[in-house]
Amino acid sequence: MPKSIFTLVEQSVDKFRTLMSGNGKKKARTFQRREISRDQHNVSRSAISEPAKKVLHRLNKSGYEAYLVGGGVRDILLGGKPKDFDIATNATPEEVHDLFRNSRLIGRRFRIVHVVFGREVIEVTTFRGNATEADTDTDDDDRKTSEHGLLLRDNVYGNQEEDALRRDFTVNALYYCIRDFTIIDFADGIEDLRHRQLRLIGDPETRYREDPVRMLRAVRFAAKLGFDIEPETEAPIRELAPLLTHIPPARLFDEVLKLFSAGHGEATYDLLTRYNLLAPLFPETVRAIEAGEPDELIRQSLKNTDARIAQGKSVTPYFLFAAMLWPALQAEWHRRQDNGDPVQPALHGAIGKVIGRQVQATSIPKRFSGPMKEIWELQMRLPRRQGKRAFATMSHPRFRAAYDFLLVREASGEIEPGLGQWWTEFQQTDERGQERMLSQLTSDAPKKRKRRRKPAQKPAQQ
Ligand code: ATP
Ligand code: MG
């Protein structure tokens, strides 16, 4: 990043602003609006996608203000490639929708617009106001918070400055103007970008109570950008983490995917654990790990996932969830076997129980929970290869994922290596080779390594 970005030229100083915290405490942080001219930063038009530029230009030409904002500006400033482009404008959603035939209005009360260009979707949001001056007993019907401070509705339009201050982190509140190529910074975001730190705008506790998902976003960006979470922003997280249990499971499912598919899954896992944020997402997994189940398989599969993403490959949500819930499944499966259930019914019972509990935390859409179950069930079929079984298993639609899962189990030390290699060779050899391999089979099951969990207690009847 060129040094010059940060030799700020203050072109205009609009006004000072003091943010209030929700508890009536005054937070002595003042912000100045700053403009960073085109020769002082490295955001070039070539880094912005054609569709995003098209939307910005058309809004401008139609007389509206429109800016690139959020990750699009942040990631370019950091020399990275934005995942997507978000645009903020003073045009209303209906006005935006009227300008683009390829757009749709999303959301019921607070509407945003998706402008669709093939696979690329540009999210256009109308400036929103007032979020940092949350007044919990407001009688304004458009902006309501619950008794816990949770923002229930956020429907007030505002000006650009208000829009900046209701955003989460200062580095996410930078606006790029394609008309004069300036960056507008209302919350000292450039300064925090320079120090590589995530700082919430306003009083952290109030902002987390308004929307607990901001705690997950802090961790996600910290892992992805390699940023520190600034001490005051970090301080309340551990204690407030349980507030995530108030978030609808469907939203948490989306957040889990974002957390683990940004290419830094293992680092994200460590941060989630450190800040007590894993428990609201995967309560049964955390309980099982605390009771002695190893989490090596989770780490190993996140390592693999990170490597896949680095190679430009995709990640399947069902594989991710199969791994994240494996310690919980193991604990429940062992518990049932210790209680005398045979292996197979114990597995099926455990699968039902683990999924049933998980969907109370994060939803798992059926199109993912089905394949996830199959990956687990196939773990029992993979050792049984005699006769025609190996061929039947190999033709299962989920064979490939189940085989990958087996390799991860071996790499994580849960089971002795060997079976994975056998399957690797079986897939590579010709028909005669396969016959030979089957006739050489002596034992039916992989040797289990000593279970690295605490000895099972006498059946804890429930
Ligand atoms: P990325 O797209 O790389 O995940 P991003 O910062 O663009 O990162 P988005 O989820 O696309 O994140 O959101 C776009 C912008 O909207 C953010 O940069 C931030 O300014 C604002 N925003 C998103 N979620 C919240 C939230 N929960 N609270 C406050 N502001 C938010
Ligand atoms: Mg974005």
TrEMBL record:
<comment type="similarity">
    <text>Belongs to the tRNA nucleotidyltransferase/poly(A) polymerase family.</text>
</comment>
<protein>
    <recommendedName>
        <fullName>Poly(A) polymerase I</fullName>
        <ecNumber>2.7.7.19</ecNumber>
    </recommendedName>
</protein>
<feature type="domain" description="tRNA nucleotidyltransferase/poly(A) polymerase RNA and SrmB- binding">
    <location>
        <begin position="226"/>
        <end position="285"/>
    </location>
</feature>
<feature type="active site">
    <location>
        <position position="84"/>
    </location>
</feature>
<feature type="domain" description="Polymerase A arginine-rich C-terminal">
    <location>
        <begin position="340"/>
        <end position="454"/>
    </location>
</feature>
<dbReference type="Pfam" id="PF12626">
    <property type="entry name" value="PolyA_pol_arg_C"/>
</dbReference>
<feature type="active site">
    <location>
        <position position="168"/>
    </location>
</feature>
<dbReference type="InterPro" id="IPR052191">
    <property type="entry name" value="tRNA_ntf/polyA_polymerase_I"/>
</dbReference>
<keyword id="KW-0507">mRNA processing</keyword>
<comment type="function">
    <text>Adds poly(A) tail to the 3' end of many RNAs, which usually targets these RNAs for decay. Plays a significant role in the global control of gene expression, through influencing the rate of transcript degradation, and in the general RNA quality control.</text>
</comment>
<dbReference type="Pfam" id="PF12627">
    <property type="entry name" value="PolyA_pol_RNAbd"/>
</dbReference>
<keyword id="KW-0067">ATP-binding</keyword>
<keyword id="KW-0808">Transferase</keyword>
<keyword id="KW-0804">Transcription</keyword>
<dbReference type="InterPro" id="IPR002646">
    <property type="entry name" value="PolA_pol_head_dom"/>
</dbReference>
<dbReference type="InterPro" id="IPR032828">
    <property type="entry name" value="PolyA_RNA-bd"/>
</dbReference>
<dbReference type="GO" id="GO:0006397">
    <property type="term" value="P:mRNA processing"/>
</dbReference>
<dbReference type="GO" id="GO:0005524">
    <property type="term" value="F:ATP binding"/>
</dbReference>
<dbReference type="InterPro" id="IPR043519">
    <property type="entry name" value="NT_sf"/>
</dbReference>
<dbReference type="GO" id="GO:1990817">
    <property type="term" value="F:poly(A) RNA polymerase activity"/>
</dbReference>
<dbReference type="Pfam" id="PF01743">
    <property type="entry name" value="PolyA_pol"/>
</dbReference>
<keyword id="KW-0547">Nucleotide-binding</keyword>
<dbReference type="InterPro" id="IPR025866">
    <property type="entry name" value="PolyA_pol_arg_C_dom"/>
</dbReference>
<dbReference type="InterPro" id="IPR010206">
    <property type="entry name" value="PolA_pol_I"/>
</dbReference>
<feature type="compositionally biased region" description="Basic residues">
    <location>
        <begin position="447"/>
        <end position="456"/>
    </location>
</feature>
<feature type="active site">
    <location>
        <position position="86"/>
    </location>
</feature>
<keyword id="KW-0694">RNA-binding</keyword>
<feature type="region of interest" description="Disordered">
    <location>
        <begin position="431"/>
        <end position="462"/>
    </location>
</feature>
<feature type="domain" description="Poly A polymerase head">
    <location>
        <begin position="66"/>
        <end position="199"/>
    </location>
</feature>
<dbReference type="GO" id="GO:0003723">
    <property type="term" value="F:RNA binding"/>
</dbReference>
<dbReference type="GO" id="GO:0043633">
    <property type="term" value="P:polyadenylation-dependent RNA catabolic process"/>
</dbReference>
<keyword id="KW-0548">Nucleotidyltransferase</keyword>
